[in-house]
Design brief:
By secondary structure, the protein is an alpha/beta fold. It is built from five helices and nine strands. It is 24% helix and 18% strand. It binds S-adenosylmethionine. S-adenosylmethionine binds next to helix 2.
Length: 217
């Protein structure tokens, strides 16, 4: 996920094995399949700043951190994940899905964009993210629905990312002015290095209208 250890798509893209570089040493091990639960306030900001049409699909639900906040906000949530983490339906690969679960009108998640493991090839992180967003946008447009994705703010400005983001009905960008702290390590906890934003696409939003930009925390 959009954890602070991840690489930017502006990073060195040499394909050789030597180009693999350690992710930033922050003292935390990278989690399997990019499992980083999202702090509640981040999803609460989304709920305050966009109007979601439910039910909502959370396709990378992890242990339900984001899904629970959406439910508290009054939404019915269908939660799935590649891995069974004791919440929702495990064993569901997002890339195998060809449609929203029946009845769902919106998708909300924070896409995993690393490839796991301790060494990460910078281009893979970006390509994985693009692949995820392309598929998410395809499914959303097919459903005439809505899509909210939490991404690293810096990532938005990459040339390929910008083209991809603009290819869908982007209606709002909610920039988080407070940095996300992904781990709680007690006294050793540090503030995250990066800012994040919610990207929100809505198929009922006019294609010719520019997206609005909101700063929130
Ligand atoms: C950063 S966690 C986010 C969990 C949750 N969305 C949250 O905000 O707390 C990313 C999750 O994506 C899941 N994941 C990774 N690749 C996936 C895939 N191809 N299909 C479905 N889930 C996947 C991981 O198992 C992990 O639980």
């Amino acid at each position: 996920m959009a954890a602070d250890e991840k690489s930017d798509d502006t990073a060195d893209s040499s394909g050789s094995a030597r180009a693999f570089r350690p992710i930033h040493r922050s003292g935390y091990d990278r989690q399997t399949h990019d499992f980083y639960p999202t702090p509640d306030w981040v999803t609460e900001v989304l709920l305050k700043n966009v109007k979601l049409r439910g039910p909502i699909w959370e396709p990378c639900c992890g242990d339900g951190a984001m899904a629970r906040v959406l439910e508290r906000g009054g939404h019915k949530v269908v939660a799935t994940d590649l891995v069974d983490r004791g919440f929702g339906q495990g064993g569901t690969d997002f890339f195998d899905r060809i449609a929203f679960p029946p009845g769902c009108r919106a998708m909300v998640t924070n896409p995993p964009y690393g490839d796991g493991g301790e060494l990460v090839r910078p281009t893979n992180a970006s390509l994985g993210m693009q692949k995820f967003i392309r598929h998410a946008l395809d499914l959303t447009v097919r459903e005439n629905g809505q899509l909210a994705l939490l991404v690293r703010f810096q990532w938005i400005a990459g040339k390929k990312a910008a083209a991809l983001i603009s290819s869908g009905p982007l209606s709002r960008v909610v920039v988080l002015t407070k940095r996300i702290q992904w781990f709680d390590m007690g006294e050793r906890t540090t503030t995250g290095q990066h800012h994040h934003a919610w990207l929100f696409w809505d198929c009922s939003y006019g294609n010719l209208l520019p997206p609005s930009l909101i700063f929130a925390q």
